[in-house]
């Protein structure tokens, strides 16, 4: 069983630069062809101050920390048994190419179902830009197959 | 945007079949290097038949459907659960519709039910989006 005393654990915050080239690569990988996601002038013509990160990119910010998934070490998880259960994004602003985003994350809950055959870890994160604007929040549930 | 009402369907997005290349590119671009999505040997050791798609890849497809329909600046909330695993060669289609109009913080927001489905009709992602109109 996972260590429930880790509920409330806060991961060290970190900051990451959102690079224009990374956003172009991300757009290519998901088949996004709208030029606002690759071309700064198209983004500006559409009313954005720079190339916006697509809606799910906050999850990639999570993976940019010193460890790709610090939760693995914290809860001693085998990555091959981890599945993604739910993902929830709330948008309070936009993340743009050139931003420096600070991510803060904590373990909100750990629980199990089917007598422990499946365990669930709920993680909550916030995303703040270089101007101290809270641009988004996320909540995700990981499922652990025992 | 007075043309959006309860029952309005979001234009569907049909994707090409998922390939190993799709997964390799998404792993690199997203930063999700979990080997279960890119290394068949690892996936088999983990008890899976082969590598399988990142759930977040399909969520990104749902995001494309939403931002093709309405500009991203209008997207307030976007959530889903991952209902089943997407395997190699699966063909995913994203669909959605407006189910309710709600007032939130002084603006009208369309609550949309969204899902990603396989060609068999099996749901892979089921969720909801709130879009300002």
UniProtKB/TrEMBL annotation, chain A:
**Domain named FAS1-like dehydratase: residues:** 7-135
Q: Name one Pfam family in it.
A: FAS1_DH_region
**Organism superkingdom:** Bacteria
Q: Which protein, by its recorded name, is this?
A: FAS1-like dehydratase domain-containing protein
Coiled coil ranges (UniProt) are none
What the entry lists under CDD domains is as follows: R_hydratase_like (cd03441)
Protein source organism: marine gamma proteobacterium HTCC2143
UniProtKB/TrEMBL annotation, chain B:
Q: Which GO terms describe its cellular component?
A: fatty acid synthase complex
**Residues in MaoC-like domain copies:** 16-105
Q: Which InterPro entries match?
A: Fatty_acid_synthase (IPR003965), HotDog_dom_sf (IPR029069), MaoC-like_dom (IPR002539)
| GO-annotated biological processes | fatty acid biosynthetic process
Q: Name one Pfam family in it.
A: MaoC_dehydratas
Per the record, the domain of life is Bacteria
Name by which UniProt lists this protein: MaoC-like dehydratase
The organism that produces this protein has a lineage beginning with: Bacteria, Pseudomonadati, Pseudomonadota, Gammaproteobacteria, Cellvibrionales
